[in-house]
Amino acid sequence: MYIVDFFAYFIFQLLQIYKYGIILYVILSMLISFDLINYNNKLISIIMDFLFKLTEPILRVIRRFLPNLGSVDLSPVILIILIEATQFVMTKYGL
């Protein structure tokens, strides 16, 4: 029983970290698009490349199902809602 609780807690925390990564990726990409920070900065480019490789595979799957809304990308919002729903189910049903 304790092993299942440990793995459930571990998965819950990984989802939480992934959610923060998505939020950071969106904020940094907005700051880069508004030219408030420079992508040519080595630290920024390393962080953005890491976050891109971390989040883009799942966001790409969600973008396939969403209609084209022009320059508005709702896939991070959908992914955060899915993560929140998964975390809610995990806490509600004791997984």
Tell me what the structure shows.
- The structure is a single chain.
- With 95 residues, the protein is mainly α.
- It has one domain.
- Helix content is 78%, strand content 0%.
- It has three helices and no strands.
- The model has no long low-confidence stretch (mean pLDDT 92).
Task: For the structure shown, list the relevant keywords.
95 residues; mainly alpha
Describe, in short, the structure shown.
By secondary structure, the chain is mostly helical.
* Domains, number: 1
- Give the overall silhouette: globular
Quaternary: single chain
Strand content: under 5%
Number of helices: 3
List the helices and strands and how they pair.
Layout: H1 2-33, H2 42-65, H3 75-92
Helix pairs in contact: 1-2, 1-3, 2-3
